[in-house]
Write a structure and sequence with these properties.
The structure holds two protein chains of two kinds. Chain A is α+β, with helices and mostly antiparallel strands. Chain A contains seven helices and six strands. The chains are: A alpha+beta, B alpha+beta. Chains A and B meet through α1 and α5 of A and α2, β6, β7 and β8 of B.
Chain lengths: 222, 244
């Protein structure tokens, strides 16, 4: 996948972009982890999101920001461990309940808690989902907003790697060494690339494992 | 005179016949004999008198009261069959049955090995799986409501468990365990998904809980407040149906 070029605030994200959201104090049960589906509350805009100029739900572009970097920008809260991944195409494909508008995904300037612009490495991947704060205070509108969040949860998947990552340090060292051998980037950049590669490899391994289990179940069912 | 046998460490000795093997004292002839340690008697050693066996030496038991026999034995007694069993460790037995006829007691038919049908095995396995998941859910609630910074309060955990029990009972024990997750403000979210059907229960501290249902095909939405502890409404019970 080609690395997307960070856009200006409010510009739509390129099609097919993979994004993730870091959950706030979301502690899933074993059953929820098995289903890999995040709760809809994960997509409820926070008070910060509601007060922001774009009124967007904060997300990060996977190619530009590591979940661990996003977690650090959010204050390294140990209670925020859940990472939900989804595709921008799936967000835009969500059918809104009448008379709501469809959801959107746009670039958003990352800011530090004091309101200043965040120029730290990884901050360029900040973006937001629009359309989650539509409607008024009526019960019906609340139900419609909840339906939108529920559809987002359907489109998302909990990452098997939480934040902060639980990847073995030895594996990261080896991966970073090979990236260094290719002769590109600083030591820090190589380390970030190593974390990204191992995160992706872990997700792939989980998917393959699930497919094998699924095939096994199919044999039993037959 | 009946001989009474006693056993000693030195060997058998008869006390009633009036003559001892090695002991001193008066014999029947009244002559005094030397003590045994002075000099052993000359001549061939006398044969020891065989001692009667212990059972025969004991007084006979009154008929019909105590009978010595093997465990689970059956013996003819007059015109009856006596069935006996051991009641305590040792040589004590008790009479448990006396039948009037000489016909031996019928043996109970040997019990058949229990075989379960595949359907019953499947039901048992499903029940076991459901119970295991139920226990896992309890452990999860305990975990998220404990520690230094619990995600939910003990009260919310108790309410969640109460609500789950009410839902499970209302579904006739067929509702699967919910996928649960805590919220940022101490909420507990339960959700069930089956095909097109999605059901949620949001347990919010200090407020009534809220059911939310969404049909993915028809886009039908339904929401209802629920006071935990009260019975579920007819509509809520109806919404449980697709998940059973």
């Amino acid at each position: 996948m080609t690395k997307p070029r960070p856009g200006s605030d409010g510009e739509p994200l390129p099609a097919g972009t993979l994004v993730f959201r870091i959950g706030k104090r979301a502690d899933p049960s074993p059953e929820a982890l098995k289903q890999k589906k995040p709760p809809e509350i994960l997509f409820k805009p926070s008070s910060d999101d509601e007060e922001s100029p774009g009124k967007r739900l904060s997300i990060w572009v996977e190619e530009l920001t590591l979940p661990d970097q996003g977690w650090a920008f959010m204050g390294c809260d140990p209670a925020k461990t859940m990472v939900a991944c989804l595709n921008v195409d799936a967000i835009r494909a969500i059918q809104p309940p009448e008379p709501f508008d469809p959801l959107g995904a746009e670039w958003e300037q990352a800011r530090l808690p004091d309101g200043s612009v965040n120029n730290l490495p990884g901050a360029e991947g900040h973006a937001g989902i629009t359309g989650l704060l539509q409607g008024g205070n009526r019960k019906m509108d609340s139900k419609r907003r909840k339906a939108l969040r529920s559809k987002l949860a359907d489109a998302a998947e909990i990452s098997p790697v939480p934040v902060p990552h639980n990847l073995p340090e030895e594996h990261l060292r080896v991966a970073a060494y090979f990236i260094h051998e290719k002769g590109k980037g600083s030591q820090e950049a190589n380390w970030i690339s190593a974390v990204r590669q191992l995160r992706r490899a872990t997700v792939q391994a989980h998917k393959q494992q699930e497919e094998q289990v699924g095939e096994g179940k199919g044999v039993i069912a037959e | 005179m009946t001989a009474t046998a006693t056993a000693t460490r030195d060997g058998p000795s008869s006390t009633s016949a009036g003559h001892s093997t090695f002991g001193g004292g008066l014999n029947l002839s009244g002559t005094h004999r030397a003590p045994r340690f002075a000099r052993p008697p000359k001549g061939p050693r006398p044969k020891p008198i065989p001692e009667p066996s212990l059972p025969s030496a004991q007084p006979a038991a009154p008929p019909g009261r105590v009978i010595h026999a093997k465990i689970e034995d059956r013996i003819p007694f007059k015109d009856s069959v006596v069935v006996i069993k051991a009641v305590a460790h040792g040589a004590t037995y008790a009479l448990i049955q006396v039948t009037d006829s000489a016909v031996p007691r019928k043996e109970p038919a040997p019990s058949k090995p229990r075989t379960l049908s595949p359907e019953r095995i499947a039901r048992k396995m499903a029940a076991l799986k459901a119970f295991t998941k139920h226990m896992q859910h309890r452990e999860y609630l305990n975990r998220v409501s404990a520690g230094e910074r619990p995600s939910i309060t003990l009260e919310t955990a108790a309410k969640a468990m109460k609500a789950w029990n009410a839902i499970w009972v209302a579904s006739g024990g067929l509702m699967p365990i919910p996928a649960a997750c805590t919220g940022p403000d101490g909420e507990m979210f339960y959700s069930w998904d089956r095909g097109r059907h999605h059901l949620e229960l949001e347990i919010i501290p200090g407020q009534s809980a809220e059911f939310f249902y969404r049909d993915r095909e028809t886009e039908q939405l339904w929401a209802e407040d629920y006071n935990i502890g009260e019975p579920l409404s007819a509509e809520a019970i109806q919404k449980l149906q697709p998940f059973r």
